Amino acid sequence: MYKSRVFHLLFFVAVLQTVLALREGECEVCVKTVDKFAATLSDDVKKDPKLIEAEFKKFCKGTRNKENRFCYYLGGLEESATGILGELSKPLSWSMPSDKICEKLRKKDAQICDLRFDKQIDLNNVDLKKLKVRDLRKILNDWDEVCDGCIEKTDFIKRIEELKPKYMGRSDL
């Protein structure tokens, strides 16, 4: 009787762990950002949570878009309202995998796993006329360009076509 209860308890814990674990594609911004950040750390910094926190704040200064929002949620930016950097730095100092760190962060703040990277637009194979103005603006924003005086969709397309030769060699779009 006792063995049966222990078995059921262990089975329940295993099922619960499987349900709470991250699925493929969940927390993509968190996992990729934590991996990217961890790759920048030297071995001596990886052992000290306080140094990790200081390095994360430096790392966050150069982030944009979703990574910047992730930094905001953790408290890595000066304008962050809250800070849960300890939930990142301590597990990193223990060499915990990034997906497990993100599971712990999700328990503290679910918004962290709601972040998704924007879909990438392949300018070599896409018809700009079929894109929405929002997507055209995103292309220009990713290039750090503006379209002064652009009112209609054709204005945005014309500006992108003008800038295409300058940016098509870059791999970040």
Folded structure, characterized:
- This protein has 173 residues and is mostly helical.
- Helices cover 62% and strands 0% of the residues.
- The protein is built from 10 helices and no strands.
- The longest helix is centred in the N-terminal third of the chain and has 19 residues, at 2-20.
- Mean pLDDT is 85; it is low at 11-22.
Layout of helices and strands, plus pairs?
Elements: H1 2-20, H2 28-40, H3 43-46, H4 49-61, H5 65-74, H6 86-93, H7 98-108, H8 111-114, H9 133-142, H10 153-167
Helix pairs in contact: 2-7, 4-6, 6-7, 9-10
Summarize the structure.
The chain has helices spanning 2-20, 28-40, 43-46, 49-61, 65-74, 86-93, 98-108, 111-114, 133-142, 153-167. It is mainly α and 173 residues long.
